[in-house]
């Protein structure tokens, strides 16, 4: 047998592996070249100003994963909790605008805290550049299953009759649940006693036990107790009914005239330090909206009780301005403090 025939497969095997490696390397290089220079840097970080495990953290990790998987970003999530979200937010405000640092924005840290913490040396609503918004989350108004209150109208009537006597639980002072309760009472011309807890779980546990009258809770935790028959859902606080809760009306649908325009929701988006180049902001904004449009991403939002709310930097900036004015008025009228 001709030795040249037996040697050909071996030669092909020896040359095919380096060729495959070269093609793989070339493809990776082309993908990297397609990204702007700032995105090619390893260590680009998305700061979450809260501890791991909550909704903010989940949304940030889903977004970073989508950007990395779909577009090759080298983005990592960094949790920097403390001072009601102010610690991590300030870190991004003070960061260089070179595309290496981004903030997972939330209505609480961006639009509420500047009014709630008058001693802050920065204002997230004006000291950061909005990149894009991608989600909104309402709250769920719940009462104990044993409560005689069966509707928002019932609760409104009781609050007016017993102004200053009824109380409501929240996961802490200055949270969305706290300020939504203040806005609700103010709209009715009534007063309610705020009972802050250190987290959602203890606040809902005491509500189940009948130690407090009502609460505006985050949807996943509150709905689990509704399904278990321990709480009764009266309404969602958003402008529209939640897809996950189609049979639960909005507060505005209650028929109570004073609540006809009632709406309370939390917006999520990405922000950048001031000075970040406009094209860098626009490029990331476009990719964020592509990730947020994916069915898998929106499905995860639903699990966390949120709905898609897609908007570019200009639309996000406009929403921040409206929300900042709204919550500043609530804080001033109620005298709420953190």
Please summarize what this structure is.
InterPro entries: BUG, Bug_dom1, TAT_signal. Helices cover 47% and strands 20% of the residues.
Explain the overall architecture:
There is one protein chain. The protein has 338 residues and is α/β, with parallel strands linked by helices. It folds into 2 domains: 42-137 and 266-334, D-Maltodextrin-Binding Protein, domain 2 (3-Layer(aba) Sandwich), CATH 3.40.190.150; 138-259, 3-Layer(aba) Sandwich (D-Maltodextrin-Binding Protein, domain 2), CATH 3.40.190. Helix content is 47%, strand content 20%. It is built from 12 helices and 10 strands. The protein has helices spanning 3-34, 55-71, 86-93, 107-116, 124-127, 152-161, 176-188, 200-208, 219-227, 278-292, 295-303, 313-334; strands at 44-48, 75-79, 101-106, 128-144, 167-170, 193-196, 214-218, 231-236, 265-273, 306-312. Strands 1, 2, 3, 4, 5, 6, 7, 8, 9 and 10 form a 10-stranded mixed sheet that branches. Helix 7 (176-188) links the parallel strand 5 (167-170) and strand 6. Mean pLDDT is 90; it is low at 1-18 and 23-32. It comes from Delftia acidovorans (strain DSM 14801 / SPH-1). Residues 1-39 form the signal peptide. Belongs to the UPF0065 (bug) family.
């Amino acid at each position: 047998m001709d030795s040249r025939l037996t040697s050909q497969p071996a030669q092909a095997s020896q040359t095919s592996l380096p060729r495959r490696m070269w093609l793989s390397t070339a493809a990776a290089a082309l993908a990297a070249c397609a990204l702007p220079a700032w995105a090619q840097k390893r260590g680009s970080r998305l700061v979450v100003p809260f501890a791991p495990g909550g909704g903010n953290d989940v949304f940030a990790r889903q977004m970073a994963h989508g950007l990395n998987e779909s577009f090759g970003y080298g983005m990592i999530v960094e949790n920097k909790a403390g001072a009601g979200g102010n610690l991590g937010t300030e870190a991004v405000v003070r960061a260089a605008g070179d595309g290496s640092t981004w903030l997972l924005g939330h209505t609480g840290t961006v639009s509420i805290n500047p009014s709630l913490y008058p001693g802050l040396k920065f204002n997230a609503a004006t000291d950061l550049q909005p990149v894009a918004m991608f989600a909104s989350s309402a709250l769920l108004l719940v009462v104990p299953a044993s409560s005689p209150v069966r509707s928002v109208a019932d609760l409104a009537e009781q609050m007016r009759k017993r102004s200053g006597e009824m109380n409501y639980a929240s996961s802490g002072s200055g949270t969305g649940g706290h300020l939504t309760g203040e806005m609700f009472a103010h709209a009715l011309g009534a007063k309610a006693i705020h009972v802050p807890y250190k987290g959602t779980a203890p606040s809902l546990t005491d509500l189940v036990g009948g130690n407090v009258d009502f609460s505006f809770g985050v949807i996943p935790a509150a709905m689990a107790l509704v399904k278990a028959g321990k709480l009764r859902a009266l309404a969602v606080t958003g402008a529209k009914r939640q897809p996950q809760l189609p049979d639960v009306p909005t507060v505005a649908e209650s028929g109570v005239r004073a609540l006809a325009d009632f709406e309370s929701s939390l917006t999520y988006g990405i922000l950048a330090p001031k000075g970040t180049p406009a094209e860098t902001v626009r490029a990331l904004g476009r990719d964020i909206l592509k990730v947020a449009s994916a069915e898998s991403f929106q499905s995860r939002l639903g699990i966390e009780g949120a709905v898609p709310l897609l908007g570019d930097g200009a639309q996000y900036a406009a929403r921040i301005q409206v929300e900042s004015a709204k919550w500043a008025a609530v804080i001033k009228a109620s005298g709420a403090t953190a």
